[in-house]
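example protein:
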Amino acid sequence: MSLEQRFRSHRQIAAQTQPECPEICPAIYSPVCVEALINGKLVRCLFGNSCQLGVSSCRHGINWCKQNEEKCKRSSPTCSQYR
């Protein structure tokens, strides 16, 4: 199964389309592991909470797919640019 087919079969978290993205998130640690195909490459990131994930989706227009936290023991090197 190709990466594209794999992503189509997972539940995606749709990018939020808002004129302005949130700037502040609560300082509550409730980790969320996600991955997405970005420019044809698999990017896996662990966000501190769902608010931070939402900000990333909004700012970068990324449809993240939620994953088991175990998959995010090693985030992608490019993950920091999407936080």
